[in-house]
Amino acid sequence: MPATYARGVPYELFARLRREAPVCRVPEPAVGPWREGPGYWAVFRHADVKHVLRTPADFSSHLGATQIRDPDTPADLEFVQAMMLNTDPPDHSRLRRIVAAAFTPRAVRALEAAIAERAASLFAAGGCDFVEVAADLPVWTLAHVMGVPSQDRRLLYDWASRVIGYQDDEYAGLSTADAARLTPMGRRAVAARPRPVPGANPRSRAALRDMFGYAHDLARSPQDPESVMSAMLRGGLTEAEFENMFFLFAVAGNETLRNGIPGGLLTLLEHPAQFARLRRDPSLLGPAVEEMLRFWPPVIHFRRTATRDLTLGGRRVRAGEKVVVYHASANRDPSVFPEPDRFDVARTPNDHVSFGSGPHVCLGAHLARVQLRAVLAELLSWDVTLAGDAVRLTSNFQNGLKHLPVRLRPRT
Asked: Of all helices (H) and strands (E), which one includes residue 317?
């Protein structure tokens, strides 16, 4: 239930289920306007989670897509199946190759200095909502990679809010872009935004026609030949593949870090001895980033669909049934992580699954790590204190914060 996660990830429940029912049936009751579903198999242990993610022949991303909730209509399912996230090899491999060049270590290294400079520019002495501050860097980076004009960056923020935060009343209708400052194609997108319909799937083509209209407008504008948009235009994508690729980068490339960066800071503030240790030894920045990702996974779960009758964790799973892997649970599995509830900035090895595993391992993982490290390195130069209560996002998918009031003071 989304409201459960507004209070926090239920790690104690996950620990009990790992011990007693590591693969178990979970019902899908109706929630508000969302209709009842058929239920699914939930997977909680690290080894089983990695097995599901690494075996697309048995556990398909394509058959039912990757969200627990089924698309509303066969047409909606067919549309989202064109997204790289919702494909299996070999289609997945083909789509990934089209845009992979923008995310190689070499390509990311070319951005590192600019990302560090942008991260440093975010901080100023005084009080702020760190969620809002942190949101700037992934949006800025994403706009740069995609070739989105700087004036239109805020549209990426709003689209991600609508899609990821649809279970949260504050985020579902969020609209922060100032139309007067947008490009003409940005203003057309704002004018085309559909009115919210309670219970409608926020990932449907109809619900996002403003974003897809913008994507086509952007494709018709002059492009940096090194941008993701140029790669998409050269890649021979169908219209549905093009729209879904834009969707994937505009949302997944944005929201994951928008939640992961504030979540990482809150974790450090809740573990002041580890924050102090990191200040004393900045060489721990690399393992600290991995531990932040393990301890505060931005994505709680992903869905697959069984392609055949099979056995998983001693349970009989039938062809066509939903199988949902819980990254947040796998990251606290004591068989892999000694003292899994202890936050340790020097933890190594750290085989977390926050970026997935197998063919769908996050394409932008290296770029995300660079951004996390840039923000964390900058935070070491500041004294940071909580100035109010952290407010969590109501979502059973994203492990997010809506508000994190803090006070910043330069360290002397």
From this structure: strand 315-317
Chain-centroid distance of CA 372 in Å reads: 13
In this structure, what token pair is assigned to residue 367?
């770029």
- CA-CA distances (angstroms) from residue 297 to 9, 103, 289, 331? 10, 21, 11, 8
Least Cα distance to 366 among 93, 100, 46, 147 occurs for 100
Helix (H, G, I), strand (E, B) or coil at 257: helix
CA dihedral 259, 139, 96, 98 (to 10 degrees): 180
> Any residues with CB less than 8 A from the CB of 71 and at least 6 apart, and which?
65, 77, 79, 80, 201, 203, 204
Q: Is 327 helix (H, G, I), strand (E, B) or coil?
A: helix
pLDDT tops 70 at residue 44: yes
Report how far apart, in Å, the C-alpha atoms of 273 and of each of 245, 276, 357 are.
42, 5, 31
Cα–Cα distance between 289 and 373 in angstroms, integer? 6
What is the β-pairing status of strands 37-43 and 301-306?
unpaired
C-alpha–C-alpha distance, residues 126 and 409, integer Å: 7
Say if CB 46 and CB 330 are below 8 A apart: yes
Residue 167 backbone dihedrals phi, psi, to 5 degrees:
-85, -5
The confidence band for 199, taking pLDDT boundaries of 50, 70 and 90, is: low
Residue 2 — very low, low, confident or very high, per pLDDT cuts 50/70/90? confident
Do residues 73 and 65 lie in contact, with contact meaning Cβ atoms separated by under 8 Å? no
Identify whether the C-beta of residue 406 lies closer than 8 Å to the C-beta of residue 261: no
